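Record format v2
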Amino acid sequence: MIEIKNLHATVDGKEILKGINLTIRPGEVHAIMGPNGSGKSTLSYVLAGREGYEITKGSVEYFGQDLLAMEPEERAGAGVFLAFQYPVEIPGVANTTFLKSALNAIRKQRGEQELDAMQFLKLVREKTKALNMTDEMLKRAVNVGFSGGEKKRNETLQMAVLQPKFAILDETDSGLDIDALKIVAEGVNALRSPERAMLVITHYQRLLDYIVPDYVHVLAHGKIQRSGGKELALELEKNGYAEFGVNEAA
Amino acid sequence: MAATTETVEQVRAVTEQKYKYGFTTDIESDVAPKGLNEDTVRFISAKKEEPEWLLEWRLKAFRAWQQMEEPHHWAKLSYPPIDYQDAHYYAAPKMKARPKSLDEVDPELLKTYEKLGIPLREQEILAGVEGSEGRSPAVAVDAVFDSVSVATTFKAKLEEMGIIFCAISEAVHKCPELVQKYLGSVVPYTDNFYATLNSAVFTDGSFVYIPKGVRCPMELSTYFRINQANTGQFERTLIIADEGSYVSYLEGCTAPKRDENQLHAAVVELVALDDAQIKYSTVQNWYPGNEEGVGGIYNFVTKRGACRGKNSKISWTQVETGSAITWKYPSCILQGDNSVGEFYSVAITNNLQQADTGTKMIHIGKNTRSTIVSKGISAGRAQQTYRGLVKILPKAEGARNHTQCDSLLIGDQCGAHTVPYIESRNRTARIEHEATTAKISEDQLFYCRQRGLSEEDAVSLIVNGFCKEVLKELPMEFAVEAQKLVGISLEGSVG
Amino acid sequence: MATTTTSHGTSPGPSRAPEAAPRGFDPATARPFLEQFDRLKADLPGGSLSWVRDLRDQGRARFAQLGFPTVKNESWRYTNLRALDKLAFQPAVAAETGVRFDVLPTVRAAGTSGPRLVFVDGRFRAELSSTAGLPAGVELLNLADALTHKPDLVGEHLGRLATPDDLPLVALNTAFLADGPVLHVPQGVEVAEPVELVFVSVGSDEHPTSFHPRTLIVAEDNARVVIVEHHVGLGTGATLSNGVGEVFVGANASVHHYKVQREHTNAFHLSHTAAKVGGHGVYDNFILTTGAKLSRNEVRSTFDGEHGDIHVSGAYMVRGDQHVDTSTFIDHAVPCCTSREVYKGVIDDTARAVFQGKILVRPGAQKTDGYQQNRALLLSETAEIDAKPELEIYADDVKCSHGATAGELDDQQLFYLRARGIDKEAARGLLIGAFLAEALDEIPEEGVREAFQAYVSAWQNAR
């Protein structure tokens, strides 16, 4: 589904990604773990197409297409979804309005009929219930005044509504207490399917107790240093990232 | 080859959508000769069969105007000198007499309003909107075409309640005592260059009188259309809300695309007596000129409301997206104790548009309150200024004002300026003013695009959010149209 | 606006150029000053230097064209100078007065001394001044001496920042330019001791007296200096102090420029300061005003290099029929600079305060951060505040905001204090003090802040 080859990226002339290789097939859940500053968020932004990152080398093929040549909204239309580490606040734009515009924009790109207000509301209500979200949250402006947990639930809701093919979860566990984490993880797990792949980016093993990955990769110094099964995460939890030349003494 | 054809097609589609009201109506018109002198004033007055006092009033205004200087020195606007002799001051579609019903109105005119989306046939309106969740279904429309009012709908129904809604030229004959009492009582004929010019040559406009204790059951609306080339439009609107009454009034404007600039200098006067409320909403979409700044309407407008009575309220809401130049400051004179003034404004300037707009809140009475919310969006090479005055006079015990002015810049070639004047002469008054200027955040844009929205849709969405506080003040009938307009006005401003 | 209260633009924006005879000026008011100038000019210091003569003549010519501004002038709409025309001001003559060294104001601890220049009615008084304690290379002297003995020291800078253009008071000052402080801090030198500049207005009992002090401050690259200006009055006759200051802040230099104006209530205090700040430079200006019948402080600062920092703030307390005008203009002419303004004022009796603050962000000045706040507290039925905070922005990647408030003391706060047993007047005093303290907090120099705080307390105690 997605094939990342020798990906190098720089920010303001500084090389952050120094040759990433990663192949993800439909149905798989991959976790990328790594210390702060290892390039985890950069990788997610580069895949989603955020400006300000210069790709100096390498390629990303997505369903046979050159992902890096696509506009952010084209990627979204093609099923790439990024759950933001810090979801952005948009004052004055109601959550429902935002979600409906996004869903219909994506449906349009896919050549599907746009949903009318009634159909949309029905769909969203179903999804919100599952995530333990209130109607009131839907009426509020996008992420404005949301708590950390509410923001992450909101990201999960968007994912549930937009039904991506390839979801990137960037530090979804940050800022969540254990109850909120469980709710979000349940929401994510409900979306696991043989057609959908996920890339879970996290610093801590904790999240992977709830979203159990098929593969774990360790990212440090802009490169994948080691890959393995879910047991690798446990090992990292015990030994830290010292093995990869990173000292994270707090 | 295919690619180029496609591009051309796309460009054409976009450009056409940008100003979809740019067509002209081919209709035979009665036009005054070009030029402006006392005879022009007499000509207009005679056309309207006006009483002597009104002609005298016009002539006084004209003489005052001749002594006045065009105010070029303070507004942040630049444009070549206007040749006031090189325009027609009266243009009217040829009609035998004032039509008694819509059936007598020229079908070409009806077609024009249909094309503009303005319903003039009462049955259609009722059929189309009735039943939508028990809302007051109808909008009564006064349609002003160039210099004259061509039709007013729902007149009979309104008359049953004692509401007078008609062309001002008609009101002069129908209820002269009201017109004579209030005309010029809020904006005197000596007020300012453009208002004085209007006083001399105004041709038509709407008149509204809501009797004591009456709540007007439907939105009243005037739709202004400039059609004739080389004509100035000088309409005059007068709304009087008698004690305890309420009215919501909507105003919309469009004009054909033309390469030369056209002058629109209107005057609107509102009078609210004890416990009365007037809500005045404008969606101004005059032709703004093309991408290179050629053509477009010069919109020099004086709008002022007087809260004469205690507990009265006047609320201005405006969405200004059109015109090459906008110069307008809808204001409130808060004379009655406990009276309330509001100004909610969205102004969007793109390409080479210029706008200098804002409000004045003059607090005279005790416990008077005012709220100002201004959202300015500047894109392309446009220049926009918020200019506002909050004045608290010594007797205005307990007066309150809150002002919020936010500007959004799109692109590095445009300008956004804020010039508030705050004058307080009463210590018990509390005034708060806040202003911010910023651009659309990259984070917001990326977030929206990651969710699948195109850059233009993302901008439109974010800007609509930015304007939300103001747009929610618009009556339902206008809100949807206004939201679309926000998106269309900014087309081509990003990317 | 759409009414008869129109105003007339002399806005310093990029769109307007000064005209020959702009509206909003009254050339007739220039005459008495011109006659005095023509009588005096031969005796003014530096008269042998052609560039000095040219400078004065240019000032004279422009003032002759303009005269004093009227309220029709947009930047003078709230401050009326008509009173100046009615008082027949005579130029100050250097006279012996009873000014003694030990009574002069200072921010220094008692018993200590440091560099200080004293001017009485605009003229330097060597016997009251001292340059002790300055690092080597720093020049601190008076303009008359500089013009006579070290013209090269001032020739490069004098009149380069404060140009007459549409500023008649600068023109008038430039015509009469004769004396005032000159401070030159060479590259890399940090002056540890604050430099105090004391201006004493004495005037005359016989006739109103005018003088035009001229200040020149040059801090070269990487220099640092703290300057404290004191303006006080000793006599009872009407005086007009029409000062102009030019402040050059080099790259990575920092100039902390504080001023306290406590002139007597027959004084007219007009002051114009123009500053230019180099890359990574800091200009920090604070003005405390309690004195004068009518005062206006105009501070215009421009960024001349990226990553500069301009900080202009102040506090004022006025009563009786005092009039205080603060007009600031910050020109973000280059990208990546930060400006901050905080002004707070207390207005009592029939006094009137004016605040006009403009931030201009020129095309291309991206990453500008501009902040401005001004708050006024009205203490009496008849006090008045007029404020005009203004943003003029021609670049998009900027963060600019301003806030303005006007009102009286908060009822709830007052009640809370009284409920805790504090009497009404004491509670009011406490709240007023707290209100002003917020402005004083803008002064990073502790010694100066404390001294200014003492002036605030003294004003409150005298209420």
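Residues 5-490 of chain B form one domain.
Residues 2-18 of chain B form the longest helix (17 residues).
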